[in-house]
Amino acid sequence: MTVTITAFERSPDRGNGLARDMRVRWALEEAGQPYEVRLLSFKTMKEPAHLAIQPFGQIPTYEDGELTLFESGAIVLHVAERGPGLLPDEAKARARAIMWMFAALNTLEPPIFDRSLVRILERDKPWYEERLSALDEIIRKRLEGLSSHLGDADWLDGAFSAGDLLMVTVLRRLQGLGLLEERPNLAAYVARAEARPAYQRAFEAQRAVFAASSAG
Ligand code: GTB
């Protein structure tokens, strides 16, 4: 059965791999699972056909035969459970890898994503600078904890896992802002992950979509 995911027809990040289809593409590449992509405009995302599979009218989604999923974390977990390379076999190590998936999505991603939204939506508000500083402080604390845990290791818990995959997709949103660069071991961790062939294939695939949408 062919796996089909959804992604932006024209991503607002201009092919930078920051939209959440990137983590799903990357997981599928790591697992060696071929996939197809259905591209959606902002308009078609809110139409009944897509709302029937994603009640919030968002990307990404995942379809495989009779199974349809939304929520990028749930999709990555499903891919990781079905394919090789993203979750350890040993039960305790597997539980810890899943713990890091939740840490990425529940502890790191909220303030990092909020920061991006504030920069876009609240730039002209009187509270802008104060709100940005407050978020930066929270993010710095989270990065401090992550950096201490990682230390000199390559990955968060032994071998590369879906926990690293999600964590790196979240940390990438900070690249170039100074916050990640303040923690050299985290910047190196992201670079190490980005050097993985599966990451490169996923990145190029989503970049090609944006390039095609801009051509002509
Ligand atoms: N919790 C859901 C999940 O993890 O799957 C969140 C899904 C989500 O936020 N999807 C976004 C979406 O469909 C795209 S990824 N938005 C359209 C809408 O809500 O109408 C978020 C995103 C968008 C753009 C950038 N960017 O330009 O840098 C980065 C991330």
Automatic annotation (TrEMBL):
- Keyword flag ATP-binding: no
Tell me which Gene3D superfamilies the record gives.
Answer: 1.20.1050.10, Glutaredoxin
Name the UniProt key words of this record, in alphabetical order.
Transferase
Q: Which residues form the GST N-terminal domain?
A: 8-87
Domain named GST C-terminal is located at 90-212
InterPro entries per record: Glutathione-S-Trfase_C-like, Glutathione-S-Trfase_C_sf, Glutathione_S-Trfase, Glutathione_S-Trfase_N, Thioredoxin-like_sf
* Ribosomal protein as UniProt keyword: no
Membrane-spanning intervals of the chain: none
One GO MF annotation is: transferase activity
Which CDD domains does this UniProt record tie to the protein?
A: GST_C_8, GST_N_GTT1_like
| Top-level taxon of the source organism | Bacteria
Q: What is the protein name stated in its UniProt record?
A: Glutathione S-transferase
Which species is this record about?
Bosea lupini
